[in-house]
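Exam revision sheet. Question 4 asks you to relate a sequence to its structure. Input first:
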Amino acid sequence: MKRNQRGITLLGFIITLGVVGVFAYVGMKLVPMYSDYYSVKRSLADLAKEPNAGQMDGATARTLFFRRMDISYVDSVKPENFRVQRTERGMEIIVAYDVRRPMIANLDVVGHFEARQEMVSRAGD
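Answer key, structure tokens:
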């Protein structure tokens, strides 16, 4: 009775390892970018919970936001990426920024992120 060996060959294992390695490397470049983005969104949501959030001026909102960015160690958001628009209900803060990380040789990965948060004036504030 003839028995066939089963399993992966050395070449198959090396190819599989290479594919997994590439995905792991790309993940190591992308995860910090998205982690920063979710820190921005969380900071904006926390800023909206401040008392009189819809009444505060743009400079105060900017200062409070960038304090939160310093605490979260987010350095990809610059002051020129922070914009305040007045609305009839209060104001809207828009943070739009790009992140560029080197990948391999002359290839970069670029992420464009935009977070918006409406700061509403509540009757009880």
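Marking note for examiners. Residues 10-48 form the longest helix (39 residues).
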